[in-house]
Amino acid sequence: MTEDFKHLTALLKKEKEEDLLQYKLKMTGTSFNERRKRGVCWYPVFLDRTKFDAGERLVVKVSRPKEHTESHMFSSGKLVSVFSTAGDNSESEETVSGVVNFVNKQEMMITLNHDFAPDWLRDGHLGVQLLFDESSYREMEKVLKYLAKVDSGRLYQLKKILLGGSEAGFKNLAPLTSPGLNASQNQALNLVNRAQDVAIIHGPPGTGKTTTLIEAILQTLKQERQTLVCAPSNAAVDLLVEKLGEHGVNVLRIGHPARVTEETLSKTLDVRVAHHPDYKELKNLKKKAEEYRTLGKKYKRNFGHAERQQRRLLLDEARSLKDDADQLSYYITNDILNKSQVIACTLVGASNNVIKGMSFNTVFIDEAAQALEPACWIPIIKAERVIFAGDHQQLPPTIKSFQAAKEGLEVTLFEKAIKNNRADVMLKEQYRMHTDIMNFSSSIFYNNKLVANKNVASWTVFEGDLAVEFIDTAGCGYFEQVDPESKSTFNKEEAELLGTHLKQYVEQIEAVSKIDEVESIGVIAPYKAQTAALVEHLLENKHLPSSIINKTDINTIDSFQGQERDIIYITLVRSNEKGEIGFLSNTRRMNVAMTRARKKLVVIGDSATIGQHEFYAAFLDYVNEIGAYKSAFEYIY
Ligand SMILES: Nc1ncnc2c1ncn2[C@@H]1O[C@H](COP(=O)(O)OP(=O)(O)OP(=O)(O)O)[C@@H](O)[C@H]1O
To answer: What are the Helicase ATP-binding domain coordinates in residue numbering (predicted)?
Structure first.
């Protein structure tokens, strides 16, 4: 088993090297202009505003010139440096790091890792660029090193159970029934209740995984004073924090305030400390300590005995006040930690110093199928038992090194735990999709086990409408193209056909006065270049009425994970003579795309190209079987 962790450490090293290499390729030896074009730098930027957030951290708002409109890679939660140049386009020493709070096309809010605004911030010539964030690799490496050495005790047992070698244990308890849950959800709740080591909730799309997990956490809190709840992404953690808050649970969110949603901010340690009854005293102590220190430091080199003594007294007093402040700060933090029923953080966030040394009877890990194994172990080393929730038939973890992925990094601890134990329950009743939308996914990924709840089983946008349509572009000559800059694939004619179909479909819905009942439309493309082509065609060319545009999102598959829309369009893009389908062959990703639709799913693609892959061949059979096949010729002539 030690060897397993050593192998994992080697894979993680490869991944980090690849990540760093990609970063360096974008950053080193390039001018600000080039970096800007690559989307990793904004220069120059203007300082619009500085303020302190609710947790008293310094936040700056910057904007870039109107003519700088290139797409960029900044996003909320990314580590950046704010820098100043001497005006000659060279970087100076003046930099401060921070975390992106919010960013759009022109503006960015950054929470600085600095207590006060440095003077140079006001001098202009500012820029912002992405930094390589090593901290999560460091924490993952640390935990693997630790695990490789553990050869006895509870963690050793858990290692054997999760990775194979020992059986997971379950208590014999009288069954629980939660009235709000359906049969398979209650089964999952009972499994969690009885689990001594591990329980796994497998939640296919729309089956109420989050609902079940929240109920399981609430049940656990009836027996345990405190639990740790984690997920790989900040967004997933915040969703759980929000839902637990709605049930009146006292939740403490550990994590950088810039990385949490506005709603969750009040639950972060920073803000909770700032609202603690003893916080005023803490601030006073810190202020006084600083005053004494400043006074003491005023005495310069040449001074006599009396002054020397005075200086010593002042500095001693400053030190003693600082010690008092540190103690009070420690007390406040502990007081908040003690009163919290749930501590919530990302997997890597579980390495935070604030919860160092703490242990929990139960650790919950949501979206576990999207997490790298090393990251999962960070909270598990604090646990007596672990509850996983996720779906290994949806998006896998993001891995940059192809080699590391293939050599094993892509296999998640969630998958290993399912394989090595009989400790999982699959939720079977889904509350999102029309049966026709559900059935294909159910047959390919879930052994035909999914059933549609009666309220959604036959819903459509209007009476008589088909829930699924496949529009075949074979023979239309719509060939894919590659964007020379981004190397991403797009298919302009297919984007236009999508626009034509959507426009006609909207007219049909309007004709039966059902348009107000359509709340949301999603247009999904597997390639970024195709989303850009769609934005241009559908939105910027005003191809659709604004009432529809306001309800429509266009994006890649990953950004739709966890979400749903009344109507979903998917453009498959690939159309070539060789039958190459690139990462369309990642069928788990396509499972996510197809299962976002509630009432209508329209897939557009070239059957001659995609049909060479068995998954799409099965899809073509399926659409033929349910009478959902149409040719693009119906729309272009
Ligand atoms: N037992 C239930 N009875 C009625 N509605 C339910 C039940 N369980 C879940 N739902 C509803 O189904 C929808 C999906 O639930 P939830 O968000 O918990 O699903 P999920 O499995 O986490 O979804 P995702 O596909 O995003 O992973 C929600 O609208 C929820 O209210």
So the answer is: 177-428
